[in-house]
Amino acid sequence: MSKELSYTIEEVSQLLKVSKLTLYDLVKKGELPVFRVGRQMRIDAKDLDNYIQNQKTNQGTKLYGPVVEQHKNETKDSNHIVISGQDLVLDILGKHIEKNTSYKSLRSYTGSLNSLISMYNGECDIVSLHMFDGDTGEYNLPYIKKILVGYPYILLNLLSRKAGFYVKKGNPLNIQSWTDLNQDHIKIVNREKGSGARILLDEQLRLNRITSRDIEGYRHEVTNHLSVASAVASGVADVGVGIEKVSKIVGIDFVPLITERYDLAILKTPESERLISTVKEILSSPQFQSEVNSLGDYDTSQTGNIIYETY
């Protein structure tokens, strides 16, 4: 029998922070496949992942909000801004920006490194980053300094969160450290190239002198924390790298390994002055921080702090 994981409507509602009515509407329209166990509707983890991926590439009203397409072709005086990254907190930020300004926020669900490259190419206005540099032990800034060459920018803290291993309940294989991955009987599930979780794994393998070809499952890539956790829960993999919050949603154990700083980068231009001022005010506001804290497993003690700024 297949070990594929599935969710109830209630669980998906909590995970994606949308109402059950929204999900029932998607099911009714045939956009989100379900199956029944008795009277209960359930959604396969793979079907949910496929739906999310489709929303990243298609236009229109989405479960997560609008998805960015052809933004680089918009005129410079457009009120559309592109926020890139996958965390749900970015959706909260977008709503606050729209509430306080005339901007219309568009969402791109691209990983940290690719988001930063998109910013360099003029395709994003706000990018979220959680990229670990093994040589300095620092997050984000070493990468920004190399990629945003020639651009003035500001780096603001959005939040901090725990990153580590997703493991099965009870951690039967006793996976506790990065070196534990270098064992023949342990199989991982990986994130896509350019994601912060993938960079964290690759840097730790480098620091511990472990070659990727020695890691079973290294080439098995998925595109979000939910899919990593689902692969571990269903037995497809023994371990994967992700953030704490999703482990609780899926119902698996979490081994914390590092506190990652999750930051926002914005280019400094005459056109972005108002946006930067607005984002600073939002991040420092008690209302925004309260909403973030209500999600759980986030640290807002540095939220709004200027990490680095060029002129």
From TrEMBL:
An MF annotation (GO) of this entry: DNA binding
Domain (Helix-turn-helix) ranges: 7-55
Any Pfam family hit: PBP_like
PBP domain: residues covered: 99-283
NCBIfam families per UniProt: excise (TIGR01764)
Name listed for the protein in its UniProt record: DNA binding domain-containing protein
Natural source organism: Neobacillus massiliamazoniensis
